[in-house]
Write a structure and sequence with these properties.
361 residues; alpha+beta; Serine Threonine Protein Phosphatase 5, Tetratricopeptide repeat; Immunoglobulin-like; four-stranded antiparallel beta sheet
């Protein structure tokens, strides 16, 4: 199969990335590893030869070295790794030019034959986590981390002994060693140990929990006094509110009576100026005098009503305040000044009235 590239720019980038030469030092080191690895492989020392060939391929990738590495892995018995290396070589071979393929001396045919012969012998291993395994459980097979897509599905592995470890977040490591043979399919449900509780972490070597820490309590005479929450302010009572309203209306009535009384006296003076001396009890007044006299009578009536209502309401307020049960006030503490107090009293007389305020310090 010939590799065809339809995007010249992309193919140019890929060819540069694939064919980018290694540094001279890396090339020399890769050549040294290859010669040593090839000598060990021919001598049957695969455990040292194959890793040396792999390091040579990593430093200076070349198709011939990749094929030799696949041959070494197959002779070592790591057939799953060998099949993967043969597939890598065939993938590289498929992208070669005709001139480059001629230099491989039919290695592609040998790689395909070896892959097809070894593939049915590759063991298949399926690893599963138990139900209820906490999220984030770490699974490693021979030091390789297996993510979630690699769990619960058969994966090719090399025959021989393997080590699988599991670890829940903040939990201990569980290790499992097992052996799998050629052509064998095996499914293993792994064990996950939960993270220890804080109490278990605190246990000493004897298996007993340590005693609780001793906290020394202060003596009774040094303990702070209990905190007493102050009583919530419930505001003035309904009786006091009624007294305030009656007192306010009474004060307004007294003011109204005083003002209208002064206006009535003024109108009476105007009427006297526009009226003659009364003859036989009848005074003669002009129009202005009559109007002023009428206004004086009306204002006098309003003044009388205002004074009367004001005195009555003020008296009611005083009675409500004086007869209200006083709340039990807290006794002032030593060294603390008493809060100032204030009260008031409505006074009224035949010709005057007012409010008398008392304040105590």
């Amino acid at each position: 199969m010939r590799f065809t590239c339809t995007w010249p720019a992309l193919c140019g980038v890929l060819s540069i990335a694939v064919a980018a030469p290694a540094s001279a030092q890396a090339v020399a080191l890769a050549e040294s590893h290859f010669n040593r690895g090839l000598a060990d492989m021919l001598a049957g020392r695969y455990e040292t030869g194959c890793p040396a060939l792999a390091e040579s391929q990593r430093l200076d990738p070349r198709p011939g070295r990749l094929f030799t590495l696949a041959e070494c892995e197959a002779k070592w018995g790591r057939i799953a790794t060998a099949v993967a290396r043969y597939n890598e070589y065939l993938s590289v071979y498929s992208r070669m030019t005709d001139a480059e393929k001629l230099k491989q001396y039919d290695r592609d045919k040998l790689a395909a034959e070896q892959r097809d012969a070894l593939a049915p012998l590759v063991p298949q291993l399926t690893l599963t986590l138990p139900k209820g395994a906490p999220p984030g459980t770490l699974v490693q097979r021979d030091g390789i981390v297996l993510a979630q897509p690699s769990l619960g599905v058969p994966l090719p592995v090399d025959p021989g002994e393997h080590v699988v470890t599991t670890q829940a977040p903040s939990g201990p490591v569980s290790e499992l060693r097992f052996t799998i043979n050629r052509s064998e399919s095996k499914t293993i449900e792994l064990e996950v140990k939960p993270a220890p509780s804080p109490g278990a972490l605190a246990r000493d070597r004897t298996g007993q929990l340590p005693p609780p820490p001793f906290v020394q309590q202060p003596p009774p005479w040094q303990q702070p006094p209990p905190i007493v929450q102050p009583a919530a302010d419930e505001g003035p009572s309904g009786r006091r509110v009624a007294a305030y309203v009656a007192g306010g209306l009474g004060a307004s009535g007294l003011v109204l009576g005083a003002v209208t009384g002064w206006m009535a006296l003024d109108e009476s003076s105007v009427a006297d100026a526009h009226c003659e001396e009364p003859v036989q009890g009848v005074a003669k007044c002009d129009t202005e005098g009559k109007l002023a006299g009428d206004r004086a009578k009306k204002l006098g009536l309003v003044s009388t009503i205002g004074f009367g209502a004001g005195v009555a309401l003020a008296g009611t307020a005083a009675v409500l305040l004086l007869t209200e049960p006083s709340p039990r006030a807290p006794r002032p503490s030593a060294g603390r000044p008493q809060q100032p107090a204030m009260d008031w009293t409505v006074v009224a007389g035949p010709a005057s009235g007012g409010i008398l305020v008392h304040r105590r310090w």
